[in-house]
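quick one
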Amino acid sequence: MTEQNTVPAPAPAFPGGTILGYPRIGRMRELKKALESFWTGATAADDLEASAKELRLATLARLAELGLDKDASAIPSNFSFYDHVLDAAVTLGAVPTRFADLRLADGSVDLAGYSTIARGEGAKAPLEMTKWFDSNYHYLVPEIGPETHFAVSSTRWVDQFVEAKEAGYLTRPVITGPLTFLYLSKPSDEAPEGFRPIERLEDVLEVYGNLLEAFKAAGAEWVQIDEPILVADIDADRDEVLANAAKVYGSLATLANRPQLFVAAPYNSLDDALPVLKDSGVEAIGLDLVRGGVPSGTDLSGVTVVAGVVDGHNIWRTDLDAALRKAAEIEALGATVAVSSSTSLFHVPHTLDGEEHLGAELLSWLAFAEEKVAEVVTLATARAEGADAVADALAATRAALASRKAHPGTNKADVRAALAAVTPADFSRPAYAVREAAQDARFGLPELATTTIGSFPQTTDIRKARAAWAKGQIDDAAYEEAMKAEIERVVRLQEDLDLDVLVHGEAERNDMVQYFAELLDGFDVTVNGWVQSYGSRCTRPSILWGDVTRPEPMTVRWTAYAQSLTEKPMKGMLTGPVTILAWSFVRDDQPLGVTANQVALALRDEIRDLEAAGIGIIQVDEPALRELLPLKKKDQAAYLQWSVDSFRLATAGAHDETQVHTHLCYSEFGEIIDAIDGLDADVTSIEAARSRMEVLPAIRDHGYERQIGPGVWDIHSPRVPSTEEITELLALAKESIPGKQLWVNPDCGLKTRAYAETTASLEHMMAATQAVRA
Ligand code: MET
Ligand SMILES: [Zn+2]
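structure w/ methionine:
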């Protein structure tokens, strides 16, 4: 044995400042464009590989330029072509049987195969997509069964590390951890009843061991293993989760040839999982100190804590003084401390560069991904060299925070007074029986009344007109004419189909939240603030920075015009307070419930104006109600209280004879059924086609007395459901809900559909309704 082998080199320390991950889509959405052109066949796999490599190398260069140490594992390597959970699945070999033929001889899948698993092909459904923790990002749900053959099946993770190393960067690979992977998976089609993916933990663990050895062999000094599942209350018993955490990390820590392990737990506090990780033998633990508190009283000696003090999930400039205090508190618990973002930065846009239209003052309050990296670097410098070394940055931050606090827009006396004047009576309408009688007398709708959820296809013509208007190529009048023509066409179509309650089609709305954000005060919108929603899809959330007011009516003109074209009732269409918050970046300087109530008061005024214009049916959409549900059970009741209250504050000013609808489009209702009842809407439409009305018995057993429209047609695909199919679904629905309480509608809005399938599906929906009514 040589001497080198008996005296190991000291393990490299964790870098003083880092981020948990960086946006992957590219500053100019380069990856989106490269992917979509590959999918259309315009470019080849090699072109996509080349674009992705270029993007990765540019990102490395930029992060080093911003100050992350390029030689010390400070730069995370977290690229993904589509989704990081899908990456874990294909790396572990977890490809569902229906896609088995996509696997090459070595078990890997190429970019075309990878895309097919993500997007489906013909009758082969893609992996299901669902929300990633309490964010707006959607991941693909792996399917695991006893038949899944786990083995290292992709070299991409290691290849990307090597690619960076050859370019001169010692990066830190970021991978989804085994617990998060398995607990987020669902049983495969082949799995027997009652099978749970976590039963495969031993096998998966072995593959993670192989992967860590491969990273070590390639020269990685640190690997980041993301385990956000540890901060969430999930279906599994907590003791089981903790025992599995002890097992996984105890076992990975004892591997002979491995990099040092950094287990990151973003999105909330680890609570009882923290001591388990600390005792497991991993070298570093990442804590989200924005969502979770400093774990006071916990002995953290002997471990590195990567203190997530810069909010990775929102766009506000960090209070650097407070961040330094938190880091010091962690240090006082005995830990070696590094500073970091609280989550990956892929939840925020790339850079403020190019957003100068927001104005210097608002800009000074904000930090997007690049600016957050700079904050981390400042904090790390302050910790290494003392606060004096960054005195200017600290002073600039203090000035910006003070300006935000003092800005009249964040504290408007009239808004505060209006909220203070709200009384409990403002949250309630008279008993449903009273409203029902008034509404029946007014509308006389038949049993199984038919309607749609609001939007009709957003045609190329509509988009072109809006783009031309935004560029000043057509004037307001021409734009207005174009939208009115579209509204008229939608109204005529619905009259021809003989729907009972019509909609105007939402042609004028670019997006159901941004439309309102642009018309309300207290919001601003970015020009390039894109964040990845799923795959190549991005959204551009608005910034809700101030007290919310409604300078003028927002929807009345369009809705009243639509009503003027028909004798049938025209349904007004608003987006609810919770959804407006959920799909924007929201101010963090007051409780969310206060902000929601400000939005609610603006909507309440809008409803009053709609009523005055003769609109008798008004839908307030809350598709995001479920999405903001806190990860920890102990926080859920308070959330449901303020969210339901804000909806009631928005709608309870409606007259008895005004029929209030709401729309929620997801099917996991179980845990929030009380809340849905609590909204007290006269009519609630929900998504139900894909699950074949499965939620209705629970709604019946709950004793739900108002009206409900379970979707009879899955609008997520162009497939046209047959009349028979819809008839069957309606018959199923009637088994649980009396016809008098039942509405007939699609699962959600039609904006992503084309006219051909929309018209055919609506015809079938009407024919099925006639058949069931008869
Ligand atoms: C995501 S829910 C969408 C509701 C909206 N009214 C629409 O029809 O598009
Ligand atoms: Zn919907």
